[in-house]
Amino acid sequence: MPAKKDLQSIRANDSPKQWAVWFLLFYPLAAPIYAITRRNWSVLTNTLAISFAISILWEIAKFIIKSLWSYDIDTNVVLDLLFTLTIWIGISVVGFYSVRQVVEQARGQGPASDPLDAITLRSATLKVNVSGASKQRRSVQELIPKFQPLKGRSKIIAFVLGGFFIVAFGSYAIYTSTVEATIKSNPVLAAVAATGTTIQIKHFNCGVTYGYYDSGSDTLEVCTAVHDDQLFSSKESTIRHEAWHLVQACSAVKSKDDEWGNLVVVDSPLLAGKKLTADEEQYIVDNYNKDSYGIESEALLAETHLTDGQIIQAIDEKCYFTE
pTM of this prediction? Predict the structure, then answer.
């Protein structure tokens, strides 16, 4: 009857490449099996750490891209597949090097499981070859106090920086999410969203644009960064203005099957008798092309003279078609 292999021999004979493939294909099953059968949890913790790190970085990237360019990565199937592949490849690569470390320790360093222990043992062995056993003991004693504080400080620095990074981005993400939720709770914006129009909130890279409605893509965007105490700058005013452009787009078609993308003056009874002030007329002239004077003047009238309820009434009247 063949002798049963000891744990050290099993670790020493493992193939890092083979385990990397198993992690790539069947990670949820392979990683726990390796941890239990080899009595080593470093491979499992390392691969979980890399998957967590990639996920955090991916969420940060999505947040930055959405803030800068108002593009939601979650709607892109190709990028979502790229993220999944990155996770699995990261797990496989980290798994390979983690298993290789375990194998090397089993073959050359015995039970040492910490890289610091391995460094200490190698240094001690070198001292034996050069100066004998007495220098070996002195080397070990000298190396331990030198390396241990450095190792402790590195961990503390890593935890502090990592914690600061996570707290900073997490706090800002919570803040912007709260701002977005508050803006989207606006009744006019809720009425716009109910028509199927895409609502986007942008936090950076706005230039001087408070918001816009793109009839071609049926998207309404509000930018938080540019709003301040200047004329026509409140988010509520911007929402009313851009929502009226949706009303103009709906007024340009007679059914859902008509070509979408044009804006027309609505001539709504709600705006009968309403006129722009001299400052408002100058604002239109300074900020828009001549071809847009009509629709922009009407949107500015709606923004400044109509209530939220009247804007919603116009959306209900113009943007829902009989089948």
Answer: 0.52
